[in-house]
């Protein structure tokens, strides 16, 4: 590791955050010293490589000494330089890379391009880059920020990206040839659960009852998205036909707040941080979190093509381990502020850190004058349950995206790599769940994946005959 800068953004090696006088002897007061250091820290936080070093060191220090008093006593006892040497000794990056390749076979391809959309849903695959999780597996990953989901789809079909951030319904649709040429995709992990919301323009604060929404214009990020299917579900459960009583427009997530501000839409069911950004910009309020529609619903996924998996099995395994490691770190509530700091810079989300932190910690302003505390607002359970795939297929059929007989389980199991996920979770020492199909509850209605066709037919508002 390089020599620690005086302005490490987390004050990782600063045993004395408070006291009289200037600690370095170059300033008239400790306040002047602190002000200069904070400016330097802010500048350093925009440097991705520097941010990587600081976050890794801070995470390790917290793991070694969970209590602040313990960290302070250790730093007082040994000093900053000795502390850094100790941290470096437990992070032998080169050795970890060599061990990974020796254990799992030579990587067929080391230089990879991974597409992503700048939303908090992508936190695991994003943070795996600055935190070095890809590098620990011997991979040299280039994260390619992409403008919209149609482009993500096209770049995967055209093999411009090796792997990608997906909306969880996208690999299913792509594999079936719905909305594009058929190319078999495989989902390694669910990137996030929950983490979305219905956000309305501030002018609609007196229209909290969905029955008042006839004629509204809503945005969703893509047709084959949980956002589209959850919005349709919510509207229909409240007696509105999503195809006849409102308009639903596909809008790239980064453009949602601007369209809300301009009055082009009345609201959106979109990914964070844009729900919270609408509140931050005082143009919208959070009507309902997606967690309140279906607690634990999948949103985004991480995957690649079946062709890539077959041609690069060791590389795919290394990717799998990298993202699962990141997901485990992101899932721990104690790490959420660190994750927010890692993914907020311009290279990734390009959002105010306070906005991202509100999303990830679940302590947030709702735009209605309340500060809420919902720890599970966003979460990062990576398990690609087959039952989730079956539910997605039921909604695709319900709304006319697919027709005729559907072999729900066969399609879900072909796309979702649940067995592989469990294998690598076990290898990494992570808890491994049992089973493949779970019953889920959406707005009080139970979904039994064993009765998928009956579930589709049970809805009064649908496009199927």
UniProtKB/TrEMBL annotation:
It is found in: Endomembrane system. InterPro entries: NrtA/CpmA_ABC-bd_dom. The keyword Metal-binding does not apply. It holds the Pfam family NMT1_2. The keyword Membrane applies. It comes from the Bacteria. Coiled coil: none annotated. CDD domains: PBP2_NrtA_CpmA_like. Keywords: Cell inner membrane, Cell membrane, Membrane, Transport. This is ABC transporter substrate-binding protein. It comes from Herbaspirillum robiniae. The lineage of its organism: Bacteria, Pseudomonadati, Pseudomonadota, Betaproteobacteria, Burkholderiales.
């Amino acid at each position: 590791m390089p020599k620690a800068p005086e302005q490490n953004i987390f004050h990782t090696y600063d045993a004395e955050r408070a006291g009289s006088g200037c600690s370095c002897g170059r300033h008239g007061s400790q306040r002047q010293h602190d002000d200069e250091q904070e400016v330097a820290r802010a500048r350093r936080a925009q440097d991705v490589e520097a941010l990587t070093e600081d976050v890794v060191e801070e995470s390790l220090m917290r793991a070694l000494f969970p209590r602040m008093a313990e960290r302070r006593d250790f730093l007082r006892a040994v000093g900053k330089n000795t502390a850094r040497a100790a941290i470096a000794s437990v992070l032998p990056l080169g050795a970890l890379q060599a061990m990974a390749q020796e254990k799992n076979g030579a990587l067929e391809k080391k230089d990879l391009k991974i597409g992503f959309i700048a939303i908090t849903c992508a936190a695991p695959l994003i943070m795996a880059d600055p935190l070095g999780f890809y590098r620990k597996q011997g991979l040299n990953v280039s994260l390619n920020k992409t403008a919209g989901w149609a482009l993500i789809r096209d770049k995967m079909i055209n093999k411009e990206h090796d792997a990608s951030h997906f909306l969880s319904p996208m690999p299913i649709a792509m594999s079936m040839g719905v909305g594009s040429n058929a190319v078999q995709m495989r989902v390694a992990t669910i990137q996030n659960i929950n983490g979305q919301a219905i956000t309305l323009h501030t002018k609609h604060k007196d229209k909290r009852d969905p029955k008042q929404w006839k004629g509204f214009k809503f945005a969703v990020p893509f047709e084959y998205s949980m956002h589209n299917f959850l919005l349709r579900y919510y509207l229909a459960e409240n007696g509105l036909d999503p195809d006849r009583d409102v308009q639903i427009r596909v809008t790239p997530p980064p453009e949602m707040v601007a369209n809300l501000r301009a009055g082009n839409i009345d609201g959106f069911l979109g990914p964070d941080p844009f729900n919270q950004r609408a509140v931050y910009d005082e143009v919208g309020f959070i009507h309902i979190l997606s967690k309140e529609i279906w607690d634990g619903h999948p949103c985004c996924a991480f995957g690649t093509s079946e062709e890539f998996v077959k041609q690069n099995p060791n590389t795919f395994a290394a990717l799998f381990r990298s993202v699962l490691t990141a997901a485990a770190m992101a899932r721990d509530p104690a790490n959420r502020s660190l994750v927010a700091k890692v993914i907020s810079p311009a290279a990734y989300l390009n959002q105010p850190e306070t906005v991202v932190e509100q999303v990830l910690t679940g302590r947030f302003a709702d735009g209605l004058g309340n500060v809420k505390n919902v720890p599970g607002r966003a979460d990062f359970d990576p398990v690609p349950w087959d039952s989730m795939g079956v539910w997605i297929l039921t909604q695709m059929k319900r709304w006319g995206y697919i027709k005729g007989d559907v072999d729900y389980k066969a399609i879900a199991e072909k796309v979702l790599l649940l067995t592989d996920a469990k294998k690598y979770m076990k290898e990494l020492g992570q808890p491994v769940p049992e089973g493949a199909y779970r019953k889920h509850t959406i707005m009080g209605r139970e979904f039994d994946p064993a009765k998928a066709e009956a579930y589709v037919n049970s809805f009064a508002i649908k496009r199927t005959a």
